[in-house]
Amino acid sequence: MKSYSIALIPGDGIGRDVTAAAWTVLETVAHHSGFAVTGTEFPWSCKFYKETGRMMSEDGIETLRGFDAILLGAVGWPAEVPDSVSLHGLLLPIRKAFVQYANIRPHRLLPGVTGPLRKENFDILCIRENTEGEYSGAGGRVHQGTREEVAVETSIFTRAGVERILRFGFEQAGARRGKLASVTKSNAQKYSMVFWDEITRKLAAEYADVEVTSYHVDALAARMIMAPESLDVLVASNLFGDILTDIGAAIQGGLGYAASANINPDRSAPSMFEPVHGSAPDIAHLGIANPIATIWSGAMMLEHLGETAAAGRIMKALEATTARGIGTTAGKDKTDTITAAIVAALS
Ligand code: IPM
Ligand code: MN
């Protein structure tokens, strides 16, 4: 029987609840679909940092490299560890080390979920560059603590990096409704973003089946609210994609529904799947976190592993569950109730 080895990093706060829920669903669907998933759990988290001074063990990256995929819950417990330390010690190094350059986030309403907009007919796929750009981590501070202090944070855009994410965007658009929105701010940022627009135009010639439009990020943000049905695939830099996908999460009903995949398209290292939401310390351990975003991310993981039918089964079960009104109102249903309903809908 085919078997997939999955590294589980529940992380902090509700990350633990939602990873457990998604794992139950993944084991069930594997059982029904004739393959196996074996999970190896890693305790890497802010708690681990408090105990060891590190967010993950020293050989963490090398350990993870041997897995078929990674399922991550959430990282962060700002009351005890600054976010700039926890994220740069666990989540962000994994994305970079494994060249997970495409962060994919689907934004559409599940049946029964009412978003804040008076429309339901949108289906957006956001592709966010995930390894460079504004989050490259290049910079420094000088004269620290003095009145003369200077902080510099440099965005890095490489031709290879921009080209590969744009190609990925064109390909996704070609496989969907054929419309790509390339998002920049080239009226104000005259080097990196003009560079991005130029590469967009150059590649457009190779993807004749895709209609590409360049938008400025401010206008695109408004469009996601005013006319989301006019959008198909978005491709954006790290920072812009980060912000736009929170708008995407909002219009699909909230972060509890926002799934995401950090993909290494070349498959030279494992990809990582995680909900967009964080550790939500205010509701941690109450058993009321919505597991849907993580379960959906689990479906994206199976899709990536080539288990397309099983991924489809999860999505059908998810949709049948929300269509019954389960998991559609914040705080109403317990994590376990939602998970049990999805598991029941699988069989
Ligand atoms: C996300 C998160 C992370 C990011 C943070 C926690 C570093 O906001 O996945 O969207 O911006 O990449
Ligand atoms: Mn974000």
Describe this structure in words.
It is a single chain. This protein is of the alpha/beta class. It folds into 2 domains: 1-104 and 261-347, Isopropylmalate Dehydrogenase; 116-251, Isopropylmalate Dehydrogenase, CATH 3.40.718.10. It is built from 12 helices and 12 strands. The protein has helices at residues 14-33, 46-52, 60-65, 83-89, 91-97, 159-175, 192-204, 217-226, 238-251, 292-304, 308-323, 335-346; strands at 3-11, 36-41, 69-74, 102-108, 123-129, 133-142, 150-156, 179-184, 211-216, 233-236, 259-263, 271-275. α1 packs across α10 (292-304) and α1 (14-33) packs across α11. It is globular. The model has no long low-confidence stretch (mean pLDDT 97). The structure holds 3-isopropylmalic acid (IPM) and manganese (II) ion. Residues 87, 242, 276 line the site of 3-isopropylmalic acid.
Q: Which features does this protein show?
A:
347 residues; Isopropylmalate Dehydrogenase; 2 domains; ten-stranded mixed β-sheet; 12 helices; 12 strands; 22% strand; globular; binds 3-isopropylmalic acid; binds manganese (II) ion
SS elements, strand count: 12
Predict the CATH topology of the largest domain: Isopropylmalate Dehydrogenase
What is the CATH level 1 assignment of the largest domain?
A: Alpha Beta
Oligomer: single chain
- Counting DSSP H or I runs of 4 or more residues, the number of helices is 12
Poorly predicted segments: none
* Percent strand: 15-25%
Tell me the distance between the termini: 20 Å
Query: Overall mean pLDDT score?
Result: 97
What is the CATH superfamily classification of the largest domain?
Answer: Isopropylmalate Dehydrogenase
Rg over CA atoms, rounded to whole Å, is 20 Å
- Helix-strand string: EHEHHEHHEEEEHEHEHEHEEHHH
Structural class: alpha/beta
Major sheet size, sense and barrel closure: 10 strands, mixed
Per CATH, which architecture of the largest domain? 3-Layer(aba) Sandwich
Ligand roster:
3-isopropylmalic acid, manganese (II) ion
